[in-house]
Amino acid sequence: MEVINLKSIGVIPARIESSRLPRKVLLDICGKPMIQHVWEKAISSDLDDVIIASDSQEVIETAKNFGANVYLTSQDHQSGTSRLVELSENIKSDLYINIQGDEPLISPYIINELIQARKSCDSRKVFTAANQNCTDEDYLSPYVVKVVTDNIMDALYFSRAPIPYFRNRTGSIRPLKHIGIYGYTYEGLQCYKSSGPSLLEEAESLEQLRFLENGEKIRVILTQYESIGVDTKEDLTRVRQILGSIGGNL
């Protein structure tokens, strides 16, 4: 059943501490902090509101300075999803979209696709995205998450391993590369909160497996869009080059 009047909030969880690239959400890209680029992409989507959620006063003040709505979270969080749970218990919405604070090239169209997926399917509590742009290098890399789905695009499994395994490549199946953006209903976030870390989640270091291990379905949206997460200095240089070549904006 299609949901007509659906309120959707985009949440950008932002922590200032990062082991591989310290303070990365505040690093300058073409004259703006990284998180401002993410926010600008998000507000150009169909979301009703976009909120930057952080336990860092410096991040909060930076976000206020460029006009963002903000939410100061507790410091007792191990993940962005946990921050989102806290926010959802204080700010009500039909859909919360978790937008990574280190993806300044995120497309607003992916966000819109998740909103439409929730409108079209009120039986799912968790939504995410994937594309077929999975190169052989991606397929073999433990740093690129793959997903396999059933015939109606509900996730069967996510893994850093190469899945599905191809005994031969004569079939038409193409590997799906997971894109780390999620949409949750309030009930989906409560499921995350009440379950606690699962065995497969800890084994693969993929928190979405918590839902699957607890019997919760995840609807996967097939998209053509890509995004680049900034985890290293090399990633940062690449993103600066891409945005610099087009004047700082996509």
TrEMBL record:
Gene3D superfamilies found in the cross-reference section: Spore Coat Polysaccharide Biosynthesis Protein SpsA, Chain A
Documented EC number(s): 2.7.7.38
Intracellular or extracellular location(s): Cytoplasm
GO biological process, any: CMP-keto-3-deoxy-D-manno-octulosonic acid biosynthetic process
Keywords attached to this entry: Cytoplasm, Lipopolysaccharide biosynthesis, Nucleotidyltransferase, Transferase
Pathway(s) served: Nucleotide-sugar biosynthesis; CMP-3-deoxy-D-manno-octulosonate biosynthesis; CMP-3-deoxy-D-manno-octulosonate from 3-deoxy-D-manno-octulosonate and CTP: step 1/1
Reaction catalysis annotation: 3-deoxy-alpha-D-manno-oct-2-ulosonate + CTP = CMP-3-deoxy-beta-D-manno-octulosonate + diphosphate
SUPFAM superfamilies on file: Nucleotide-diphospho-sugar transferases
Pfam families: CTP_transf_3
GO MF annotations, alphabetized: 3-deoxy-manno-octulosonate cytidylyltransferase activity
A GO cellular-component term linked to this record: cytosol
NCBIfam families membership: kdsB, PRK05450.1-5, PRK13368.1
Family: Belongs to the KdsB family.
Function: Activates KDO (a required 8-carbon sugar) for incorporation into bacterial lipopolysaccharide in Gram-negative bacteria.
Stated name of the protein: 3-deoxy-manno-octulosonate cytidylyltransferase
Species annotation: Paenibacillus rigui
Gene responsible for this protein: kdsB
